Amino acid sequence: MPELNSVRRNSKDAADREVLGRRHERRGWAVTEMRAGDLIAELDEASLSRFHLRAVVASGMGFFTDAYDLFVIGVASTLITKDWHLSSGHLAVLNSTMLFAAFVGAFVFGRFADLVGRKQVYWLVAAITIVGAIGSALAPSFWVLIGFRFVLGFGVGGDYPVSAVMVSEYANRKDRGKLVGMVFGTQALGLIVGPLIALSLLGAGLSNDTVWRVLLGLGAVPAAAVIYLRIRMPESPRYQVQVQGKAEQAAARMSDFTDGQVSGDGQAGLQHEMGLRAFLTNRRWLILLAGTAGTWFLLDYAYYGNTISTPQILGLISPGASTMTKIALQLAIFVVAAVPGYVLAIARLDKIGHRRLQLLGFAMMALCFFIIAAVPGMTTMVVPFLLVYGVSYFFTEFGPNMTTFVMPSELYPVTMRATGHGISAGIGKLGAFIGVFLFPLLNDWFGLRGTLLLTAGIAVLGFALTLVLPEPAGRSLEDMHASTPAVVPQPLRVADSA
Asked: Given this model, what pLDDT does residue 183 score?
């Protein structure tokens, strides 16, 4: 009798799969049988181990390079402006070109990583950043420099989705936010290293021309090490199993890579391959894109506009300060306010919840920028300004600057995960481009108080848009997408505290 029940269950399962397959085919989904379900389950429940650290280092070193290259231009452009006598328009172009290129690169390489695999894009974007960094350092004229900054930004933009997704797909469910957050946390080092090197070189008496060229060229050094690390990394096991159908290869490679800690015996079910058109025309994914891309756009508008323009902001607050003084003040803000924010976010992200932390950060950013803009004298007194500005920086890192990077690597299905993250990162960098480009112009039109009041309004919008996102903390990537909209159309839950 048990044998008969088992046969009936197996027949029913096969029939159900056949019916689901026909439904998916009618809706434009390709359906294939995959294996190695146990491998995915073991990945979800694996304890933190050395293989997690290897994935974080391979992605994190690249992201450190990205952050260094993106933010060092704030210091370098101050020196270039003195050497080449740049107008405010040329300064805006110089500070924002790389961000516009990152917007393009995130779109292109995010999609490419879903089509051909994470690993191929993983090392390719690092190679592109080397070319861009070296070319920028050797640029003989303004427009040649702009061209190489575009190349550099194209590679950096491509690194955003693949660095996040690679670690997300290696991570266990309980520590996924922490692991992806550790990758993003290397941005803190990128923020600090540039000003430190600039202060050292200027203190040694080197010319402005030499200093900015060295600053821009050094971005090629860690990128070269990244290529070696990433070539040695195996392909994402989730991508191999669920997209490429290479269950046995994935299980064998992961067993070797983790010294037997993670292995699978090849059990699985249906896998759905979504096309770009289906993704972009489905209401559920469009709402998610509005949430992840929209909040990233608003965050980067506020964050990059202020961060890259910090030397100019400090010049407005304290017009008599020297270049070295302004760089030192910028470094102090990063060390005292930003770095603790990164560290605390990594430590508490999975416990507080990714969505909740983003709401908290946007709320505090709005409050701080409103205080600076609304309280008389705040933009003319250095110490009070730096205190409130520093608090805003802390909650930017302990909030949306971290979470807007983490959540797009979790909320999309495996066949569109890098695409979704790439679109979100690209839209985010478009916001950064607009913020950096407009900051000098807005400051001329409305003054610093008016510009920062607008930034407070942007943070309020970010808070509101975060409300459309679900809470992914602690959930398996596969569980979040088990009920795909092609099978059972369901409205997106506004909040999920699971």
From this structure: 93
Burial label, 383 (beta-carbon count in 10 A; 0-12, 13-18, 19+): exposed
At position 262, the amino acid (one-letter code) is: V
Q: Does domain 34-239+281-480 have CATH number 1.20.1250.20?
A: yes
Residue count of the chain? 498
**Burial of 368 from C-beta contacts in 10 A (0-12 / 13-18 / 19+):** buried
d(CA 216, CA 179): 29
- Identify the sign of the CA torsion 42, 45, 47, 52: positive
Tell me the CA distances in angstroms from 361 to 353, 459, 492, one per residue in order.
12, 9, 23
Please tell me the distance from the alpha carbon of residue 262 to that of residue 495, in angstroms, as a whole number: 32
Q: What is the pLDDT averaged over residues 320-339?
A: 75
In 85-175, where does DSSP find H-type helix? 88-116, 118-137, 142-170
For residue 127, the one-letter residue type is A
- Could you tell me if 110 and 450 are in contact, meaning their C-beta atoms sit under 8 angstroms apart? no
Angle ∠(121,181,68) on CA atoms, nearest 5: 65
Task: Report phi then psi at 330, rounded to 5.
Answer: -60, -45
* 3-class state of residue 492 by DSSP: coil
Which tokens go with 299? 């965050």
Give the Cα separation of 429 and 401 in Å (integer).
12
Q: What is the pLDDT of residues 66-92, one digit of tens each?
A: 888 887 887 888 889 888 988 878 888
- Residue 400 CA to residue 100 CA, distance in Å, equals 21
C-alpha count within 13 angstroms, C-beta hemisphere, residue 232:
12
- Of 7-11, 154-158, 289-293, least confident by mean pLDDT is 7-11
Q: Which amino acid is at 94?
A: L
Measure the CA–CA gap between 393 and 459, rounded to whole angstroms: 13
User: pLDDT: is 452 or 293 the higher one?
Assistant: 293
Question: Letter for the amino acid at 184?
Answer: F
Rounded to whole angstroms, the Cα distance separating 205 from 211 reads: 10
% of the chain residues with pLDDT over 90: 39
Burial label, 20 (beta-carbon count in 10 A; 0-12, 13-18, 19+) = middle
Question: What average pLDDT does the structure give for the chain?
Answer: 82
The rounded radius of gyration (Å) of the Cα atoms in the chain is 24
Nearest to 74 by CA among 309, 356, 240: 309
* Residues 96-134 pLDDT 10s: 888 889 999 999 999 999 999 999 898 999 999 999 999
The answer to whether the CB of 220 falls within 8 A of the CB of 129 is: yes
- Alpha-carbon distance of 185 to 60, in angstroms, equals 8
Question: Encoding tokens for residue 23?
Answer: 């439904």
